[in-house]
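Data availability (excerpt). The following record was deposited with the supplementary files.
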Amino acid sequence: MSEEKTPKILIVEDDERLAGLTQEYLIRNGLEVGIETDGAKAIRRIIADQPDLLVLDVMLPGADGLTICREVRPQFSNPILMLTARTEDMDQVLGLEMGADDYVAKPVQPRVLLARIRALLRRSENAINEDVPQRLEFDDLVIDNGGRSVSLGGKNVDFTSAEYDLLWLLASNAGRILSREDIFERLRGIEYDGQDRSIDVRISRIRPKIGDDPENPKRIKTVRSKGYLFVKEGQS
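Predicted structure:
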């Protein structure tokens, strides 16, 4: 029997003391953890090393976290967890628009950070549901959960891991309205606080990728006060 692979985490954080303490805690909890303190160097390291998950601070020397997220996304599909010391929603929304999967506000307790990391790592591991066909087709849109790939009109479309997980959740429940509470519980393992906009931001990024008109969506509909609906064939 082969041994279970230890997830590799890269922390990009310029506060060396904080990064070191975080590294020690995560290693004690079964993760392999590296540290990078310079933003510009981090871009090259992320693309070269392809860690299983990236913990990325927003405020960095060399290149800030938002820039790093935007630069690496075309070549890095694993989860990105952003850390922000700011309280404004703008950083959070910008991070998600750049391709981040989740975010936490600093200072964050190590156990909370560990829980978020484990939730992101679990998402890919638990993506396959035996009760659902692993290939879904909606006219010219094909979603293959085996390869975690999406094609539209025969052409592959790039998705971040968080975007893909949300699309698969909606599509595999086509015809059923999923509330934000449902989505948060299924994808992030936490309760919806009534204010988090990450799902809305992600939906706005997914729609044009699957040929949906953001102004008049036909595939992913917003159902007022209820949630989101992926439309089945023949359903309006």
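Summary of structural features: The chain has two domains: 8-125, 135-230.
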